[in-house]
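testing teh design pipeline on a random one, pls ignore if ur not involved
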């Protein structure tokens, strides 16, 4: 049975629940988008089943579609949508129509249950990390770009997948 995640924004205007089979916050993304919208240390996304998302306060949601390859000839708008509270700017979840069955709540928005502390933190997109950003303490794996597995694959490989 998937885990029911309950989350909210900082000001409480938006509250949501979603069921997750991949609820362990093991992967820290240090790309420029995650750092600029989520804070200097980046963001940790979880996985959720989009058809289970329930939202209170939808009128306070706004969406940001990231600019990819900014200031280059390859600049374009991402297909992914980062949903955030229009009142307090808390990042809540990411949705991408390329994978309509999935939604990716930000671990920072989850209120309950208390999320597991992963044995190893996977740090991705180091090729985007500025020198002043320090990696978290403790056991970690680092990747210049993306890790070689999806959220689901990592959870299955580490016996953390909740069907």
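output:
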């Amino acid at each position: 049975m998937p885990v029911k995640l309950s989350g909210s924004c900082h000001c409480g205007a938006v509250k949501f629940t979603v069921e997750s089979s991949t609820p362990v916050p093991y992967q820290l993304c240090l790309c420029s988008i995650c750092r600029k919208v989520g804070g200097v240390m980046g963001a940790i996304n979880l996985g959720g089943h989009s058809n289970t998302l329930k939202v209170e306060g939808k009128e306070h949601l706004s969406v940001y579609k990231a600019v990819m390859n900014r200031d280059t000839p390859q600049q374009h708008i991402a297909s992914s949508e980062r949903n955030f509270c229009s009142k307090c700017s808390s990042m809540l979840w990411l949705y991408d129509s390329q994978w309509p069955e999935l939604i990716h709540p930000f671990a920072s928005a989850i209120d309950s249950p208390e999320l597991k502390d992963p044995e190893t933190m996977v740090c991705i997109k180091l090729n985007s990390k500025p020198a002043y950003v320090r990696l978290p303490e403790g056991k970690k794996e680092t990747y210049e770009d993306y890790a070689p597995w999806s959220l689901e694959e990592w959870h299955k490989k580490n016996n953390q997948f909740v069907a």
